[in-house]
Amino acid sequence: MLALFGFVSLVALVAFHTLIAGVATRFFRLRLNTSWGSVVYTLVLTPMLLLISMLVFTGVLNVGIGINLGSPTLVIALLVALPVVLGAAIDYLYVPSPDDVELPDTDGR
């Protein structure tokens, strides 16, 4: 039963990290005016954010307890690399580009 809870919590953490990576990618695409700036920030800052989150969730909150993945490299690949790739892919492939979205006029008239 403990292994089942660990597996479900690990999958939930991967989904949560994917959500964080997608939102961070979108934030960088909206805020930065350069085409390469958002890519660089996504590839540098998002993994750092996910690594800190992984350390908090797996260390302090014991997410994934009872699951032995065998290698710290596999844990980092599962909880950091995979969500960054999935989050960026979802944002770039399935969400409209910031230039294509029309915003309402906020003149107040």
Class inferred from helices and paired strands: mainly alpha
Tell me what portion of residues adopts beta-strand conformation. Answer: under 5%
The overall pLDDT average reads: 88
Output the helix-strand order: HHH
The N- and C-terminal alpha carbons lie at a distance of 61 Å
Task: Give the C-alpha Rg.
Answer: 17 Å
The total strand number stands at 0
Uncertain spans = none
Proportion of helical residues: over 70%
Count of discrete alpha- or pi-helical segments spanning 4 or more residues: 3
Main sheet, how many strands, which sense, barrel? none
Shape: elongated
Write structural notes for this entry.
- The protein has three helices and no strands.
- It is mainly alpha-helical.
- The mean pLDDT is 88.
Tell me briefly what this model is.
The chain is an all-alpha fold and 109 residues long. The chain has helices at 2-31, 35-60, 72-94. It starts with a helix and ends in a 15-residue tail after the last helix.
What labels describe this entry?
mainly alpha, elongated, single chain, 72% helix, 109 residues
Write the layout of secondary structure elements.
Layout: H1 2-31, H2 35-60, H3 72-94
Helix pairs in contact: 1-2, 1-3, 2-3
